[in-house]
Amino acid sequence: MANEQVLDPVEDGGTVDHGRRRFLTATTAVVGAVGAGFAAVPFIKSWNPSARAKLAGAPVTVDISALAEGQRLVDEWRGQPIWIVKRTKQMIDILPTLDPRLADPESTTDQQPDYARNELRSIKPEISVLVGLCTHLGCAPEMVAEIKPEPFDPEWKGGYFCPCHKSRFDMAGRVFQGVPAPINLLVPPHHYEDDNTIVIGVDPQGAA
């Protein structure tokens, strides 16, 4: 039986309750960018294989047609949470300004396929696809997309924060300097079947 996915609105702070985001739960979290309201979206039927097939590494097909700007959809592949985020223009424009604060802004360490080895770490500029596990000890970071001072970073420009050991990543999954996480968040193999469909676990045709 296929799983169901839901776009789950959160509070104004832009964070998600840690307990509700266990990676075995295929839900989505709405995160408001600055000046943007929250969206109410109905259930989305998943086209995914069974849980047993996912754990075996079968590709996962995800419908992103209902994904709005500033929203994140969480699914699962090989027992790992997969984050699919539709970034706003503001999120994209901020990324280059963060390079001086990052440990590996150009993703020189092999944390992504070659086709995602760019500043946005994505195939399409607006769509980010990441493995949602901190690269320190595999904890589940929180998505804190709102651009405002935070207790963990007074110059916060939006991204991912791991409350377990205080690691921080930007909206491309690039790790900040001076945190426990040693490398950027991983980008899984994926490709677009069409404009509204992403297949997790299979590289684009012709990709090395």
UniProtKB/TrEMBL annotation:
Gene3D superfamilies: Rieske [2Fe-2S] iron-sulphur domain (2.102.10.10), Single helix bin (1.20.5.510)
Domain Rieske: 94-199
Cellular compartments annotated: Cell membrane
Reactions it catalyzes: a quinol + 2 Fe(III)-[cytochrome c](out) = a quinone + 2 Fe(II)-[cytochrome c](out) + 2 H(+)(out)
Enzyme class: translocase
TM spans (from-to): 23-44
EC number in record: 7.1.1.8
Cofactor mode of binding and number, as noted: Binds 1 [2Fe-2S] cluster per subunit.
Membrane topology label: Single-pass membrane protein
Cofactor: [2Fe-2S] cluster
One Pfam assignment: Rieske
Annotated keywords: 2Fe-2S, Cell membrane, Disulfide bond, Electron transport, Iron, Iron-sulfur, Membrane, Metal-binding, Translocase, Transmembrane, Transmembrane helix, Transport
Entries under InterPro entries matching the protein: Rieske_2Fe-2S, Rieske_2Fe-2S_sf, Rieske_Fe-S_prot, Rieske_Fe-S_prot_C, TAT_signal, Ubiq_cytC_Rdtase_Fe-S_su_TAT, Ubiquinol_cyt_c_Rdtase_Fe-S-su
Misc note: The Rieske protein is a high potential 2Fe-2S protein.
Function of the molecule: Component of the ubiquinol-cytochrome c reductase complex (complex III or cytochrome b-c1 complex), which is a respiratory chain that generates an electrochemical potential coupled to ATP synthesis.
PANTHER family hit by this protein: CYTOCHROME B-C1 COMPLEX SUBUNIT RIESKE, MITOCHONDRIAL (PTHR10134)
Family statement: Belongs to the Rieske iron-sulfur protein family.
Subunit description: The main subunits of complex b-c1 are: cytochrome b, cytochrome c1 and the Rieske protein.
Protein name: Ubiquinol-cytochrome c reductase iron-sulfur subunit
Organism: Luteimonas soli
Gene that this polypeptide is encoded by: petA
